[in-house]
Amino acid sequence: MLRSLVGSEMCIRDRFHPHFYDVCEYHLIEVSPSLVQLQRTRLVHHFHKVRIHNCSILNWKERENRRCMVIGIELLSTMPHDHVVWLADGACYEHWVTMVHPDNLSTANERHLQLRDPAILRYLRYLDWMREDTQHALRVLCQTGGRENIDVLKYDTIEPTPYDSSTLIANKIVHMNNPYRQAYLPTASMMMIEVLAEFFPRHHALFADWSDFTENINGINGPIIQTKKRIGKDMYIRRCSAKFNENLGMMDVCFPTDFQHFKKVYLRLFGNKSKEVSIMTHPDFWATFGGDKTAIYTTKSGYNPLVQDFKNFKVFSSHHVDGVDVGIDDEH
Q1: Which helix (H) or strand (E) holds 234?
Q2: Model confidence at 142, in pLDDT bands (50, 70, 90)?
Q3: Which of 105, 125, 222, 230 lies in the 20 to 30 Å Cα band around 132?
């Protein structure tokens, strides 16, 4: 599932672990056709051991019953998230961008519609943020999968309309931009875990990613946005931005990963008995598994970035326990 790691990893196995290399199969999942061609060129010496799949992990349909390893380095932070906003009474809205004319960004409209997306509702259910033992509007939607709602929401949409009074417009603007009542939910990561549960039941997992940022935008799990500015011929600088619509097409969006939430969703789908899960910071991971190699990266001043820096970078690992059925935890 990696673009830059696979070549080095296969070379190390071929050189130092030939017995493992002989029985190894490496499946690289890449959504970009151009990067697929690049990887085929880079991996020409391992073409008999590496299979490249030009698809998304979310569209994977081939079941693998053997024990395997799933690796994703800085994968979770680049996966799509859903933006939701909720009011003081608990009514929740999902954020949509609609296009009057396709492929014309100047005709884009932002909408905040009543939450009915089944993926968002599943994610809220996995985290126990929305329970099914009350008649709350959003909780009823969670129970019915977004098909119906017994409570009538105060607003059909919370973005201002030409028919709203000035007071109502001001009230809606406050709700739309309240940083304490909006969140970015990693629904694509949740769907990836669902794919792993269905098609890779005996896998071991290793995911490493950023857990927080210092200059992210407002909101729970808000991303960091970097825009690319031209300052001269073939010269660019990057700077953080506070909004998505600045310098369109020249920006990177990176979401932090709440690994405690990721762990909870993971165990809800696999069960607490079938997987052993560990979450470690980058320094702790290197201090535990780096061994003598860690000292190689120590500078003359005694500073070692592997064990003294990257504290906001975490490593999630899971070990499959054989003999236990994979499924949603019985406790839930």
Answers
A1: none
A2: low
A3: 222
Give the pair of three-digit tokens for residue 74: 């800085």
What span, in angstroms and rounded, lies between the C-alpha atoms of 152 and 137?
8
Nearest to 72 by CA among 266, 322, 271: 266
Work out the average pLDDT over 179-188.
90
DSSP-based three-state secondary structure for 176 = helix
Give the sign of the dihedral formed by CA 73, CA 179, CA 150, CA 147: negative
The pLDDT score that the predictor gives to residue 3 is 45
Q: Are 146 and 117 in contact (CB under 8 A)?
A: yes
**DSSP per-residue letters across 85-134:** EE-TTS-EEEEEEEESSTT-GGGEEEEEEE---HHHHHHHHHTTSS-SSS
Q: Which amino acid is at 199?
A: F
The pLDDT score that the predictor gives to residue 152 is: 63
Structure tokens at 322: 């054989």
C-alpha distances in Å from residue 70, one per residue of 14, 109, 146, 240: 20, 38, 32, 32
Q: What is the mean pLDDT of residues 304-310?
A: 82
Is residue 270 within 8 A of residue 194, CB to CB? The reply is no
What are the start-end ranges of the H helices in the chain?
Answer: 5-16, 18-22, 33-42, 118-126, 137-144, 166-176, 187-199, 259-270, 282-289, 305-308
Give burial (CB, 10 Å; 0-12/13-18/19+) of 91: buried
DSSP 263: H
Query: What's the token pair of residue 172?
Result: 């809606």
User: Angle 89-117-328 (CA atoms, 0-180°, nearest 5)?
Assistant: 100
Q: Residue 96 forms beta bridges with which residues?
A: 111
Predicted TM-score of the model (pTM): 0.84
Strand runs labelled E in 190-270: 203-210, 224-232, 235-241, 251-254
Residue 99, beta-bridge partner list: 108
Q: Token digits for 316?
A: 């999630």
